[in-house]
Amino acid sequence: MAKKWLLFKQLAKKSWIEFRRYFFNSMGGIITLYVVFLVIFMGYKGIAGAAGPDLGTSIEGILVGYVLWFLALSAYQDVAYSIQNEARQGTLEQLYMSVHNFGWVIGLQQIVNAFYSLLVASVLTFFLMLTTGKWLTIDMLSLLPLLILELICFAGVGFALGGLMLIFKRIDSYMQIVQFVLIFFVAAPAKSFMKLMPGTWGAHLIQKVINGGEGLLEFAWQDLLLAVVISLAYLLLGVVIYRICERKAMQAGTLGHY
Q: What's the pTM value of the predicted model, to 2 decimals?
């Protein structure tokens, strides 16, 4: 276990060094997300002004949905692009030959990435609230477990896409499609079979915590159990797809090719 802790610390150190070294690019990503939201927000205000005060979807709902979409993007892209970058740099096969199982390496890397994603999401949320003038009452004790479940769910999507990258090498166009599909899943009403889509039920519970003022302990245990089952199911499905693709790439001898 001490070796795994050392691995985790080194991965965290590596991510911090990359963040500092490419700070300008990192800030560019945050600014881009802020500008995109600004466009959405201004468009919403324009439509609301033309249609009247009751448009159905609140500014608070749009704000929360946008931050959830960012976390979804971060979770699945971190997994898929980490694998692609390792293959591009020629280090993917070296990771498979390390003393640590590759599953541990990529798994601990995603924990580090999740921490940074939550940190960036916190900063982004602050500036979005400052812009909209809508200050959300955030119960972190109730919100954090639900956010972690959302990250686990979308990490499963990332593992599936990462597996496809091992075989097809470049699937950037499909990655772009997925990011728009995620908007639908995060914003979709959690009714009937739609609640089983990745991120939909978790987003529903998060909206109830932030906009409805409900605490985690106020939810029915069936609702919480469903959130856990959905997240773990998508994670397991993503890992299974990754393992199948990994085996095919190894048999073809193209695991580290790009």
A: 0.82
**221 falls within a domain:** yes
Sequence-separated (6 or more) residues with CB below 8 Å from residue 246: 163, 166, 255
State the Cα–Cα distance between residues 195 and 226, nearest whole angstrom: 9
Q: Which long-range contacts (CB under 8 A, 24 or more apart) does 49-57 make?
A: none
Our CA dihedral for 113, 115, 116, 120, rounded to 10 degrees, sits at 130
CA distance 39 to 83: 32
Residue range of the domain that includes 79: 2-48+56-252
Q: How many Å apart are CA 230 and CA 247, to the nearest integer?
A: 26
Averages of pLDDT over each 10 residues, the chain, 258 residues: 78 83 80 81 56 49 81 82 76 74 79 84 83 78 88 89 83 82 83 86 87 82 92 94 88 71
Q: Evaluate whether 137 touches 211 at the Cβ level (below 8 Å).
A: no
pLDDT at residue 258, rounded to an integer: 61
| Residue carrying structure tokens 């060094």 | 17
- Residue 50: the pLDDT is 43
Three-state DSSP at 143 gives helix
Q: Work out the number of other CB atoms within 10 angstroms of the CB of residue 24.
A: 7
In a domain, 258, yes or no: no
- Under a CB-based contact definition with an 8 Å cutoff, are residues 169 and 26 in contact? no
